[in-house]
Structures are given as C-alpha cells and as structure tokens.
Amino acid sequence: MSIKRTGIGPIMSRVVEHNGVVYLCGLTADDRAADIKGQTREILDKIDALLASAGSSKAKLLAATVYLSDMSMKAAMNEVWQAWIDPAHPPTRACVGTVLGTPDTLVEIVVSAAK
C-alpha cells in the first residue's frame, strides 16, 4: 500500500491518497474580504479542483468537517453547501464553531473522498 502526497509544504500536504481514499487538508478562502457565502463557494471550488486532480469528485465524498468562526453563519454556509453537494451522495458531516487562523477567516473545510 503506497501513500501519495501532493502539495507538500513545510507543515502539511494538501492532498494525501492512501488505500483508495483521498484526504484533503483544511481549506480556507483566499478572498478573506468575502462574506461567508463567498468564502464557502471559493473553498468548494478548491475542493472540486483538488478532488478532480486526484481522480475523484464530490459524488465520492465520504466525510466533511466544516469549521465556522461564528455559528450564527451556519444557515448561510448551509445554503451554499446544499447547492453544491451531490444530493444522491451526501457525505457524513460535522460542523464546529471555533477560532480560526485569522479573524477574517470565516470558514475552513476538510473532506475525504473515495478514489
């Protein structure tokens, strides 16, 4: 069983593939001036691209963890999330309120998917 790592940086890999599963790092938006919907859309676009580069897609999502800097934004984030997910293949999901890396980071999402 081999492990494939891409996007290797000094503290993490952006993507790790092992045993038919693709694991993505925690992703945040580059445009931190955007509101929760904008940041969520940007992250989901990144997820689509990274999964595609690993030979997977959102239809093969297994699990997701969404971190919000303020749980009062959950409904707005969910609007974007629900428009994006494959309704026939939703992953398991947890949504957690927490302090994120910078004050203007509103959401961070981590997913894993089957290959």
Structural overview:
The chain is globular, with a radius of gyration of 14 Å. It has helices spanning 36-53, 74-84; strands at residues 3-8, 13-18, 21-24, 61-68, 92-97, 107-114. It contains two helices and six strands; from the N terminus they run βββαβαββ. A six-stranded mixed sheet has the order 1-2-3-6-4-5, covered by helices on one side. The mean pLDDT is 97.
How many strands in all?
A: 6
Low-confidence stretches: none
Instruction: Tell me what portion of residues adopts beta-strand conformation.
Output: 25-35%
Radius of gyration: 14 Å
Helix content: 25-40%
User: What is the succession of H and E elements?
Assistant: EEEHEHEE
Number of helices: 2
Structural features:
115 residues, alpha+beta, 25% helix
SSE layout and pairings?
Elements (H helix, E strand, L loop, with lengths): L2 E6 L4 E6 L2 E4 L11 H18 L7 E8 L5 H11 L7 E6 L9 E8 L1
Parallel strand pairs: 4-5
Antiparallel strand pairs: 1-2, 2-3, 3-6, 4-6
Helix pairs in contact: 1-2
